[in-house]
Amino acid sequence: MLAHTMLPENTIETSSSSAAAKMQMLHQAQDESAAASSAAATATAAATAALEDSEPDVETVSIKQATPRKVQSLDLDSISMFPSLGSSSAAPRAAATTATWGARTKSTAGKLGAVGDQRRTPAAAAAAAAATAAPRVSGSGNIQERMQIPSIQVPGFGKSTVGDHVKAAMASSGARIESTTSQATGLTTFLISGKPEAVAKARLALRSSFAKKETIKYLVPSSARPHLLGSKGRTLNAIQTKTGVQINIPRRKEGETTFEPATLNEDDLDAEEEMVPIDIEGDVESIKAAKEEIESIISKACRITYRLTTVPATYYPFIAGARNVNIQAIQQETNTRINMPFHVSSQDDEDDEDAKDTAIVIQGDRKSIRKAIERIEDHYREIERTTRVMTINIPKRQHRFLVGTKGVHINEIHAATGCTIEIPPVDSTSDSIVVRGPEAELIPALTLIMEKANSSQVESVDVTVIHKPVAGKNKTEHARHVTKYLSARNKLRKIEQDHEGVQISVPRTEGQTAVTIEIVAKSRSEVEAARAKVQEAVKAMTPVLFDTVQVEPLLHRHIVGRKGQNINRLRETHGVEVIVPDSNSDSHEIILVFEAQEGVDASDVAKIRAALEAAKQEVDKLANDATDFSTKILSVPARLHRNVIGTKGSTLNAIMGLEPTTSVRLGLPRAGSADVTKKAGTPALTEDSIVIKGPKDEVERVAREILALVEETKHQQVMNSYTVTFDIPATASPHVIGKGGANINKLTEQFQVKFDLNDRAAGADDKTKKKTGNETMEVTIQGVKKNVETAKETIIKMVEQIADATVAKLNIPVAHHSALIGAKGHYVRRLEEKYGVRIQFPKAADLEDDEDQSKLNVVLVSGGKKGVQGAKEELLELLDYEKENNNTLELVVEPKMLPHIVGRSGAKINEIQESSQTRIDIRRSTDSDEKAEVRLVINGSKAGLKQAQKAIQEIIEAQKSQVEELVEINNKHHKILIGQGGSTLREIIAKAGGPSEMSAQAGLVKFQSNNNAVLLKGDKTIVEKIKAEMLAMVAEQDSWTTISIQIPASQHRQVIGPQFSHVKEIENRHNVRIQFPNNKNKKEGGKDAEVTSDNAANERVTIKGLRENCEKAKIDLEARIKSSASRSFSIPKRYRQAVFGDGVWKYRNEFNVVVVLPRGEGGRNNGANKRIDADEDQVTHGLTDGLSWELYDLSGPAEEGDEAQYTVQLQGTETACEAVEKRLQSLLEKARASTHVLKIRVPTTYHGLIIGSGGNNIKQIEAESGTSTKIARGEELITITGPKEGVEKAKLAILRVVNSSEKRA
Which SUPFAM superfamilies does the annotation name (predicted)? Predict the structure, then answer.
């Protein structure tokens, strides 16, 4: 017998020879052994009969071909000899299949078997055929799988037809397949290599060609049928494509109803759901995979809800565990969802089931629900056995502290002790608390309970027992009215604010027999004080002060009035407070309360009742004024109610208006509402009912609009029913749909239509699709006809554009990809939007290790031909630009140089970047060593790189030449080296070649305040020059001498000169230092800081320097003294204000002349606006254009003493004194001509216009009129001085400015 090896021509590749040689040896050894044993024929016949139903198996191996040679009989199961084949460990597969969702059924297929070695038992042969190992994965992500099938199943067994099937499988999948057939084992082995998806596809193709097909019946729940099919059969097609089987799901019979999972009780949990058989055709492995997919869908789609009511709610907290840890564990274990109600009341179990549902709700499949129920009931039985119960009495008012916010205290007690507490309901009068838990933990739990209960002090006031019953009034109703009044008028809140930490609560529920106000606080004293005030407030509210009136809730807003004007009027007119129910309440009751009113005694019942009756009548009248109230019931199908309501109620709100006067309720009324009670003669409400209440006209309007909206909705539904169906190529469907449905969603939103896409070839097999070659996708559009047609045209255009699509490959170096893509893909997205194309840059992660790295340079541009061409050209242009301008240079610098390159706040590096048009990135080493080098990465054009590199190198070279030197200089010389305001030091630095800017000079020289040293830091050359200059100055100062000269204090200012100019000139000329005795005399001083005749003290002036220089400076100072002069100037005293009223400091600044006023007159400035003493006949009052004014005539004879002479002294040079005297004479003549003074009051808003920009307007008025004008700051007064004609002219000019401004306004 010969070993038969089948290899497709020019297709199957070999890697090496060792493994293939082993396989060839195996075949020859088996043949020789079979010829020697006659019993082998019988075993072969039996095995061949079993092979008819055997199943192909898969195992990962590495099959390699070599030259065959004869060997001795070998052990096929030897791992040491055949390590690549793996060991046979898989058990034979079960022959029968079982339906999970129904009664068990037998498979229509026969039992499966496998052919083994003739010298082994059938079981061993089957085990060998079923050997399976995990796929071997290579470093590139490729895998290898081995697949074996009985040779009897190969078409044309013994012939060369297997190669054709292998070629077809390789062509369709892209995987590499090697095959060999052994007559000894009766198996054909396939070695499949490639990507996982390619291997899987090839495996399906081989099974389809070689594996034996069978058909089984599989039962599924009837309710799962639509989920298995999916929309347009998509889910079913996906299962068939993935597993390679054919599935036939029968149609639903006429009259058959689909079982919908509902809420089940324990009685019907075990009820079997109707099962539907489906046919699955394929090989055994494919059928198994398909069944797994089906079961996965069924487990998600067929979940039911079960209500467990057999466990008492008392044990819920124990079953749930602290913070629900037990329930969460059960949910994870059983794959269910469990909702367990929160249990706190000891009477919950006694409540009516309809009133409160305490069932445990479980969601999941039936099997999981049964398991969850079993776990919960086990917990319950164990807890019931181990827990004990203890009952204690705690005052009802303290129960709230045991519960806490959202039951936090109950959870704390449970977590700490494992015990739970049960508290009576709010409406119960019981004080009993039930504690349930382990016996050993009951006492610790009781301790915690008492701590929580006593954490706050509680007192209560029973409002129902404070007042005696009154005929015709229920005391409970009166108590409820009192609490509502106290709450509405914030009287209880006022008590809370008056007492620290006090909280007052009133009952919220209706129908209670006792109405109790509770007061809670930490402090007992605060609780007692607050309780006393509450009692006092309640006692004051006697029944006689209250009354009620019944008004339809919809009319309450009319009773209140706009901004509460009606109830405010009732309060002011009758002293009655009106308490209206909350807008969300259905209550008809309005409470009237008489408050204290002036003139009405609190004990005068008649007047109180009269006031209440009057208020009641007015409320009735207000209600009657709105008596057009009506109710209308519309019948609108419930399915259209959501259209009436709109999104978040927007449509209904728009119909009712901004301030609705009607109420609209849709469907059946909720339980407990006023609409539940049916009145006689009114139609019964249904789910289609819409009830409208309000003023008659408004009700009619709302009804009309709702009906119109309903008709419009029906019309829209008819309009949107237009449907069109057309086909597009299946290859174009991904582009029409878009990524994640983006394109189709955009069209849906744009045209307000519905799309449905269906693959026409979805049900066809692969062979049919290959024959036709023109697969199409059916597109259905539904909506308004015009929109549908437009949407269709849009899709057709998209398909045409896809047909025009092309792909261009650009070779762009990967180094430039980031620049072309742009920040966050900005640039590439702009190109895609501009040209309507898609640009794909390669990713390194998508490239295999053994692939050519040059593929990373390939950029794909796909889209229309025109768009692709445009995008291609722009990308290449940008690439050329990047090659020219996107260059990189890296510089390595020392860390100590980095601060100098960056500069303060990055100023220096920003300057370099801006001037060179580059970008500089600083990259520090990850090494913690502070001396690690720093890299500067410069990006930009070549010229920019050179410029930036040069600037950085200059900074580095400059810093390398920096030195520090400490010079010993006695600190007595520091002041002289620094000079006045640092002037000497600045001159030294500038002279040494240092910077002239003060900011740049900072840090070059630092004087040590605590020793005789000066620190010099900077360029070596500059430091040396500064040092030499300083030492020379110090040496020179050591040889200096001091002389003095007497200069009258009155002449100091003339000698010093403006801004020290004269003294500095002498100091610089002779290199000396001149010190005047008083620094205040040396300074310019403030305004009006005059030198008087008494400033003659301290006239000694010192000169320091070399002896000969001091003598020369002394001579210059004496010359200055000789050149000064002094003369007197006298004027009549009556004109001193006009001449010297503005002060004399301006003469010192302008002429360097000191004006010495007579003693007692220095610095006085009575102001131009002082009171003018004139007789009444010399004053003229007037009103012009609304502006008042007074004209003073000063031309009369002088008063006694006014003609006395007022003499001042002028001190300065002869020329300067003469110039000042001429100025003073001019002012005196002008003062003599100023015979009149006009005071006019002008609003300050016009002062800016009168003054003008830079004072131009007022200067022009003064020049044209020959007057002087004073405008008081912040006041309306304007004073004009001059001759009568000039004053009048100036007044008219001011009036013109005011009038013209008013006209413009």
Answer: Eukaryotic type KH-domain (KH-domain type I)
